[in-house]
């Protein structure tokens, strides 16, 4: 199976000027000898939450890599999930912190090495969550509280799938959803709705959002009755809206999704790939590194990747015709 690109997504490259320099530095030699490793590296981040301060939040990580590798590492935020993949394919980024589908694409399309996957509280997968501000409609039981947040329909088990019988009630609702590159914000919940017999083109009113926290806030503010996100994106906005866990109730969880992780460009030598992989894994094992990674992507640890686990998300995307 060759997943070439997502439907409705053009080839979208990172547009920051610094990337062009990185691209030229990493280009191959003309005499057929192996290309020298670049003198600078670009780390591409995808906007899974508010991207305004993401580069600044990641600066301790890029500073650490710069010191460890002896090569300047600069962080950039791609305009969407797909742009980060295309940037790696075009030689504009050499390190990608990518969701599971984009890890698979970077490997399948551009021979990138998937070297690390994230752990969150010891878990190597996570469900997408369906959340609502109207629990009377979607909850078949009384919501229960866990860690200050409300769940119903068995979603408090925190493991998917759960509560999927309730999603037929989404028919006709306003639904906040991310772009089709997002496994948790689009692919898995949309597939669940389609499996329940809902035509997501005509059977719901789509409220497009660009990030997971924006989906939560759309439900919190009443702009949408239902929203999709990764579990548990409510935590991201809790510092600004402390009552989000009470007003936004998770009523269903999808099948488990492989965790996101780190891909490295095929342009890098195996030796440099090993150095980057080791540096990132070691960093995630330190208290400071774990805190920074948690701030960036709610990552508690980076562990060796099993690329074969990513096949299921590519298969889910294929079922939606996103190829």
From TrEMBL:
Q: Which UniProt keywords apply?
A: Signal
Q: Is Signal set as a keyword in this record?
A: yes
Any Pfam family from its record, for instance, is Phosphonate-bd
InterPro entries the UniProt entry points to: PhnD
- The highest taxon in the source lineage is Bacteria
Single GO cellular component term: ATP-binding cassette (ABC) transporter complex
Q: Which PROSITE patterns match?
A: PROKAR_LIPOPROTEIN (PS51257)
Q: Do you know which Gene3D superfamilies this protein is assigned to? A: Periplasmic binding protein-like II
The processes (GO biological process) annotated in the record are:
transmembrane transport
Which residues are the signal sequence here?
Answer: 1-20
> Which NCBIfam families did the record assign?
3A0109s03R
Which PANTHER family does the annotation name?
PHOSPHONATES-BINDING PERIPLASMIC PROTEIN
Q: Which family does it belong to?
A: Belongs to the phosphate/phosphite/phosphonate binding protein family.
**Name of the protein:** Phosphate/phosphite/phosphonate ABC transporter substrate-binding protein
Q: Which organism is it from?
A: Sanguibacter biliveldensis
């Amino acid at each position: 199976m060759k997943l070439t690109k997502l439907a409705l997504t053009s080839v979208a490259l990172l547009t920051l000027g610094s990337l062009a320099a990185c691209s030229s530095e990493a280009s191959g030699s003309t005499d057929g000898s192996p290309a020298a490793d670049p003198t600078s590296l670009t780390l591409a981040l995808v906007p899974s939450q508010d991207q305004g301060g993401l580069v600044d939040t990641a600066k301790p990580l890029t500073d650490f890599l710069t010191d460890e590798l002896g090569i300047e590492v600069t962080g950039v935020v791609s305009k969407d999930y797909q742009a980060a993949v295309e940037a790696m394919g075009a030689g504009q980024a050499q390190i990608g912190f990518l969701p599971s589908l984009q890890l698979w694409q970077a490997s399948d399309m551009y021979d990138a090495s998937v070297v690390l996957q994230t752990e969150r509280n010891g878990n190597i997968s996570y469900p997408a969550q369906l959340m609502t501000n109207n629990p009377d409609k979607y909850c078949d039981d009384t919501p229960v509280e866990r860690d200050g947040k409300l769940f119903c329909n068995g979603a408090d088990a925190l493991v998917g799938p759960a509560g999927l019988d309730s999603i037929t009630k989404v028919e006709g609702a306003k639904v906040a959803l991310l772009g089709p590159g997002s496994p948790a914000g689009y692919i898995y919940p949309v597939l669940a709705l389609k499996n329940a017999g809902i035509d997501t083109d005509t059977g719901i009113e789509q409220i497009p959002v660009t990030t997971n926290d924006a989906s939560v806030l759309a439900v919190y503010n009443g702009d949408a009755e239902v929203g999709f996100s990764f579990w548990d994106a409510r935590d991201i906005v809790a510092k600004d809206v402390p009552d989000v866990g009470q007003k936004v109730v998770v009523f269903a969880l999808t099948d488990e999704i492989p965790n996101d992780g780190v891909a490295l460009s095929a342009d890098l030598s195996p030796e440099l790939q090993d150095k980057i992989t080791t540096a990132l894994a070691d960093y995630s094992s330190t208290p400071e590194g774990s805190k920074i990674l948690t701030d960036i992507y709610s990552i508690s640890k980076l562990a060796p990747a099993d690329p074969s686990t990513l096949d299921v998300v590519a298969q889910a995307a294929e079922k939606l015709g996103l190829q």
